[in-house]
Write a sequence for this structure.
């Protein structure tokens, strides 16, 4: 037998996933099953301009759900953003009360969904006024003891997969950290994926978020915490994303490409929520905080070197990734692994991802800081355990 099989595992996923072109029209009925007042949190202003939000509000009213706009997420969420949104929810008297209370609806990319997940949790968990006290590795170590307000997530960017995960990534720049708020209770109750919502996403964001999804599919497949169901869905997601990302980047209106990327992103969230990630995401968190590199871009720059570094620890798995990415078999694991790396480099260059850290404003002086900040949940799942010296020399090799 060439690859490992973990014969004992847990698996979880959002209780209800509704996927399909134009299915955002069902948001009223779906929201009505969770509550009677809906607090809406959205991402980019494009949604407002294109009338998408007005359409969603209309669908909600039709079903007797009162929409209330609670805010927007125009950047990756920071502690202050979560605290402000949670305070607004509390001051509005938001409460979950079976199907007759309130629901939070997030329409946007990972930033909007993460902000909504964290604020929905902080609205009902009130041991501290700041989310910082609940974040992993910083603050007071408080736990999410109470169920958050129910969340309906409508992803628009086909990238982070946050709609299917149990954590929200929250940043701070003073002091600098990027940490997760995590609880099984935070998984969105309903995920409504309408790939048509991603048509207006610009090419650069399509590239970054799409490469984030690909990185998540690959890292969750080879991580030390990998298990059978996430591995199976990761392969399906990767096959679809490999076929679609360049087309979605070049022709944003291509329905099939957008559908494939939206599904791949959803699967990447389900895979990472169960298996965790690896080195690329560990360093990406540090790049986000210390060089302000957008998450997907940081992952994309790190992915080729992460594959190279882990090849010796996961030869069979990386070779399998090569087969899925290229859609054909190879005569040896070495050939498969080489093909995986070449295909990722080819996709990256087609969607204009830079190859070197200096192209994303990283200087040599910053490298030791990046090494220090890259330790966390993601790095702990990397197949090859890496010392600080090794991480430093890996970063130097792609400077
Ligand atoms: Fe990611």
């Amino acid at each position: 037998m060439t690859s490992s099989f973990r014969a004992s595992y847990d698996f979880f996923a959002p209780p209800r996933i509704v996927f399909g072109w134009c299915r955002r029209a069902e948001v009223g009925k779906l929201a009505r099953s969770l509550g009677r007042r809906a607090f809406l949190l959205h991402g980019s202003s494009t949604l407002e301009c294109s009338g998408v939000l007005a359409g969603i509000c209309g669908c909600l009213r039709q079903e007797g759900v009162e929409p209330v706009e609670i805010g927007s997420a125009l950047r990756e969420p920071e502690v202050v953003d979560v605290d402000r949104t949670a305070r607004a929810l509390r001051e509005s008297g938001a409460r979950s009360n079976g199907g007759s209370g309130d629901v939070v609806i997030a329409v946007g990319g990972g930033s909007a969904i993460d902000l909504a997940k964290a604020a929905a949790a902080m609205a009902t968990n009130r041991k501290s006024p700041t989310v910082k006290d609940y974040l992993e590795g910083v603050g007071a170590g408080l736990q999410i003891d109470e169920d958050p307000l129910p969340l309906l997530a409508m992803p628009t960017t086909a990238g982070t997969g946050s709609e299917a995960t149990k954590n929200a990534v929250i940043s701070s720049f003073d002091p600098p950290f990027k940490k997760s708020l995590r609880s099984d209770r935070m998984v969105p109750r309903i995920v409504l994926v309408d790939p048509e919502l991603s048509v207006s996403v610009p090419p650069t964001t399509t590239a970054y978020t799409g490469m984030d999804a690909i990185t998540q599919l690959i890292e969750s497949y080879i991580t030390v915490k990998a298990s059978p169901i996430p591995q199976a869905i990761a392969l399906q997601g990767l096959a679809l994303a490999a076929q679609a990302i360049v087309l979605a980047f070049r022709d944003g209106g291509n329905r099939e490409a957008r559908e494939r990327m939206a599904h791949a992103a959803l699967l990447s969230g389900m895979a990472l929520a169960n298996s965790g990630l690896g080195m690329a995401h560990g360093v990406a968190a540090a790049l986000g905080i210390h060089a302000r590199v957008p998450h997907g871009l940081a992952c994309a720059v790190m992915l080729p070197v992460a594959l190279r570094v882990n090849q010796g620890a996961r030869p069979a798995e990386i070779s399998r990734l090569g087969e899925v990415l290229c859609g054909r078999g190879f005569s040896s694991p070495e050939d498969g692994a080489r093909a995986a790396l070449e295909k990722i480099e080819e996709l990256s260059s087609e969607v204009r991802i830079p190859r070197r850290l200096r192209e994303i404003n990283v200087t040599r002086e910053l490298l030791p800081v990046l090494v220090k900040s890259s330790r966390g949940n993601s790095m702990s799942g990397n197949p090859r355990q890496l010392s600080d010296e090794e991480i430093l020399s890996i970063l130097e090799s792609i400077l």
About this structure: Residues 228-250 form the longest helix (23 residues).
